[in-house]
């Protein structure tokens, strides 16, 4: 374990990139997920079809394949991303598809009577969504969102295939240098566990705060 302690700064740098990729992808994935859920529920027929096709395509293909397509495949069509940007794009698109189903279910779970009451009081559809439906849907969606986020935190290890030096790739580089496997992989497992525990605690806090009024 002396090797792990001596190289801890390098592993922590990899953990920083893992956390950065997770947070950025979470943010843009939320935007994509909410937009897709609204499109599926309230869009016209072509928009609903496109949203449904997007969700089906992303959920039906491996995340690793999506990352490779974004980084390597799009170059053939003149679209080129750096490794870190490609990681953001691929993981945001991926998690957005899963979150869209979470938000769609949460929006449907809000009683229709509240929407009708909001319309009756003179609110526009946008005001109704922003003030009445979405706050309640967010409270309902947080527990499944937590599982999705923690799953994505662990899936950031896949971006090592496009040369992003996140946590797992940092360990692989050290293993290639020292030819010692178990200490580095155990250290990586512990660091992933710590990050997952922190995310769970933050989401639990957010859920408790949103549930105060209920």
From TrEMBL:
Name the record gives this protein: Amino acid ABC transporter permease
UniProt-annotated location(s): Cell membrane
Protein family (similarity comment): Belongs to the binding-protein-dependent transport system permease family.
Membrane topology: Multi-pass membrane protein
Lineage of producing organism: Bacteria, Bacillati, Bacillota, Bacilli, Bacillales
Species name: Paenibacillus thailandensis
Ranges that cross the membrane: 15-42, 54-75, 81-99, 184-206
Location, primary (coarse class): membrane
Family matches, as NCBIfam families: HEQRo_perm_3TM
Key words, A-Z: Amino-acid transport, Cell membrane, Membrane, Transmembrane, Transmembrane helix, Transport
The ABC transmembrane type-1 domain, residue ranges: 15-203
């Amino acid at each position: 374990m002396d090797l792990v302690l001596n190289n801890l700064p390098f592993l922590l740098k990899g953990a920083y990139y893992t956390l950065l990729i997770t947070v950025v992808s979470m943010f843009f994935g939320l935007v994509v997920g909410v937009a897709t859920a609204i499109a599926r529920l309230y869009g016209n027929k072509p928009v609903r079809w496109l949203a449904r096709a997007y969700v089906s395509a992303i959920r039906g293909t491996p995340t690793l394949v999506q990352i490779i397509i974004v980084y390597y495949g799009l170059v053939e069509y003149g679209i080129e991303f750096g490794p870190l940007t490609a990681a953001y794009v691929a993981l945001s698109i991926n998690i957005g598809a899963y979150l869209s189903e979470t938000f769609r279910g949460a929006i449907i779970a809000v009683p229709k009577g509240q929407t009708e009451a909001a319309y009756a009081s003179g609110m526009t559809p946008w005001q109704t969504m922003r003030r009445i439906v979405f706050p309640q849907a967010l409270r309902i969606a947080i527990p499944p969102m937590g599982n999705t986020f923690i799953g994505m935190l662990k899936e950031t290890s896949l971006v090592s295939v496009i040369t992003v030096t996140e946590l797992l790739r940092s360990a692989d580089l050290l293993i290639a240098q020292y030819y010692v496997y178990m200490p580095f992989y155990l250290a990586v497992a512990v660091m992933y566990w710590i990050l997952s525990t922190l995310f769970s605690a933050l989401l639990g806090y957010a859920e408790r705060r949103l549930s105060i009024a209920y």
